[in-house]
Amino acid sequence: MADLQRVVDELAARLDRPLLLEDRVQKVVVYSEQSGAMDDVRRDSILRRRTSPEVRGWLRDAGIHEAARPLRIPGAPHLGLLPRVCVPVRHADGLLGFLWFIDAEPPMPKSRVAEAAAAAPALALALFHESLASGLASHRELEAVTGLLLGEPDAARQLIEAGAFPQARPVTVQVARPVAAEPDDALRLALEQGLLALRRRLGGHHPLHLVRYDHAVLLTAGQPVPGDELHAVMPVPVVVGVGRPRDTLAGAAESYREALHAAEVTARVPGLGRTAEWARLGVYRMLTQLPDQELHPGLEGLIGDAQHLTLLETLETYLDLAGSAVATSRALRLHRTSLYYRLQRVEQLARTDLKDGGERLALHLSLKLARLSGRYSPRNSPASSS
């Protein structure tokens, strides 16, 4: 509720007009400080937490349940109702609630109505948080899971004591990160919607979740949710990272760090697929700890020049296949003579010697690091993780 109250108070201050937020059955959820014009309906709504059946019927007939945009509603003196602006709070086709402004003394300018409508996604997200069904009240669960992922020592105990997670079960953390989308309230709401749908089907896994500004976190008891199932419930395309299981809920922060790491690598290296387990990232587990400027000096010029992409792809495949010319020729469908020519060109341009094991290692790691940083994007070759 604190999140909703903050959003409503900030919006009321920006618009310089008191407001009231109801859920989809017109039960009052939260309201700002009331000043200015006040009618009997607003007063009764605040005191009784909902409007009378007669007023609800009047507003329903005015079309509030079908409205997709802000709606101006005329006054009804016989009901003690001043004119109003109703801003429906929706996500996709789902009605979540109504934002109400008294439209009198003076009426709201169109620019202020548009600003109120622009705030609807943030309110929808906050309403979703309030509607969570779990052993804890939604805001308490949110705080506890946030603390758990930050490594706070009491968070696991709070969740276990509240019955939100079994004491004797291991925990696995998964992170879903949107692909090619800028973080905003609409994106967070989409992630929330997907995880809520999944939680309804995962009762036996004792799921918990948290949505952050650019990714979503799912915690389950025991084994992780299959990646395909997590992808299927998400309204937006995502990549998924999976941390290793931990014996107790108190270890969730470590699994979370691994899952976040795996999701970041998967987002940067498309060849790894849509889902990646931290335990199977291979060399990429280490490379994210290195600065992307630390490349083999001979590769700097090649990586920055598109005409050398074929040479880099050939070199990477050759190194991925342990320096086997036979396997590389087969993988690239390339004649052995052409392969040797390309490798010789790499040696000349990069001022290196592929017979030197240290040079091969430095070149191989540099190519993987360049992949991870986005400076090198091969066209069709798979991304080796070993």
UniProtKB/TrEMBL annotation:
UniProt superkingdom: Bacteria
The similarity annotation says: Belongs to the CdaR family.
Which stretches make up the CdaR GGDEF-like domain?
Answer: 155-265
Instruction: Output the Gene3D superfamilies linked to this UniProt entry.
Output: PucR C-terminal helix-turn-helix domain
Give the protein's recorded name.
DNA-binding PucR family transcriptional regulator
Q: Does the keyword RNA-binding apply?
A: no
Q: Where is the PucR C-terminal helix-turn-helix domain?
A: 311-369
> What are the GO MF terms of this UniProt record?
DNA binding
- The reply to whether Transit peptide figures as a keyword in the UniProt entry is no
List the source organism.
Nonomuraea fuscirosea
| Keywords carried by this UniProt record | DNA-binding
A Pfam family annotated for this UniProt entry: HTH_30
